[in-house]
Predict the structure.
Amino acid sequence: MFWQKLQRIIFVSFLVLIIGSLLVYEILGSGFDSGQARQYLKEFGIWMPLIFIVFYTIGTIFIPSTPFMAIAGILFGFKYGLLYTVIGGFLSSIIVFSISRNLGRKRAENLLENKYLKYVDKYNKRLEKDGIWDLIILRNTPIMPFNILNVLMGMSKIKTENYILGTVIGLIPTNILTVYFGDIISKIF
């Protein structure tokens, strides 16, 4: 009983932290200075790619990934920037998915037993059978923030292997566009 309450508190706190950080980013995010971030990362020398991936992984748990992707294009060019953002985005999504799966899935299943949520439960069962295509489409449409989707998928019945494959495939199109944009910016300025 105690463990279940503790899990619920941790999971709710996690959700509040993600949603709160998205709101703070929306309010204060326009002050982000990519030049300053670029200078800071350059100080790491040969460790810069690894440090960037760690910053990307942890940072995108709490704020949108777009600035990180553009910075990757500026710092590393298109090819390596794309590689580093896909790795960081994948790691970030797996962390959020795993936390949600372990702490929130039981709660979600209990909620879906409500007769008024039968259509959501029906979609959840669809995700269990073949959710990979739904995830790829959802990753590439601006319907909801990246981490909210990670949380929802963690609480859903989607198979972990389908989540992983759908995430990797779904990350690539947006990353290509944004990293390429950053690469072009670096060549102009």
User: Anything to note?
Assistant: Residues 2-188 form one domain. The mean pLDDT is 80.
